[in-house]
């Protein structure tokens, strides 16, 4: 029974470590390419406080994922919030796409990737609820 419990915890640790690593690799470069974004996806950012504020908030969540990875049982309540964090972007992208306000491309792909993380987080949350 103990081995089964260890595998459940190991799964959660790996998922959250992978999510935090992936998130930082994707998000941190955005802090240095505001002008490039304006060229590739006009118009230019007119309110950088929103751009960098959003970037800071989502980057902070990647750090939360690393904390969860250290002890998924202890930080299980944060796992539930992490599921909601992923749902928030996925659901916005889905609604915007279905209403014709989001074209296929990077934002839609990002929403789909967040949906995948959401499912993986939910599996981790379910697996660590009972240590037996």
TrEMBL record:
The chain crosses the membrane at residues 12-31, 51-69, 78-99, 105-126. Keywords: Membrane, Transmembrane, Transmembrane helix. This is DUF4345 domain-containing protein.
